[in-house]
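Entry 14. Ran structure prediction on the chain below.
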Amino acid sequence: MRTLLQGALACALAYLIGSVSPAWFAGRARGLDLRFEGRETLDGENAWRVLGRGPGALVFLADLLKGQAAVGLAYLLGGSPLALVAAGLAVTAGQIWPLFHGGAGGRGLAPAAGVLLAASPWTLAISATLFALLASLTGRLAHAELFAVALMPGAAVLAGRGDVPLMLLAIGLAGMLVWARWGLAEVFLGVKKEDEDEK
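Output, structure tokens:
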């Protein structure tokens, strides 16, 4: 019972951590609301596009640290491996569907990367390498990102060698990240035409 309560607390706090948006604060510092600028997302990529490289890099780093903080918090609360998985998924969900800002958040990549950096650096390294290879072969960053995310569970299999909680984490993260990129996924399914921004 205590373990269950610790896991629930870690999950709730992780979601709150994810819901705090550095991109929103960076935009407001310039008198802008990034929910209505550029790609209209609260993440490092949109901050980079609208505010410039420096603010965009800082927002990405802050979002990455949110993922690490959520996993670290779950560890501190003595959570089980499944509680760590739940916290990792919750912080990413908080970034995508925040409690604040009307539920309009970012696309979740940076906090998910932070979660993997804390929980399984090798999974992150394999996924990042796959992204780099696909990007160099296709010349399409967004497509390479989508494929690398979709193949993240495979990277977890290679890195974890049967680690079930890691597999659950990778599947959950991949599902949320693909969902957050559904507009691009629709391009692959032929539902809509590709926008120039998605290349």
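Residues 79 and 86 are 10 Å apart (CA to CA). Will compare against last week's run tomorrow.
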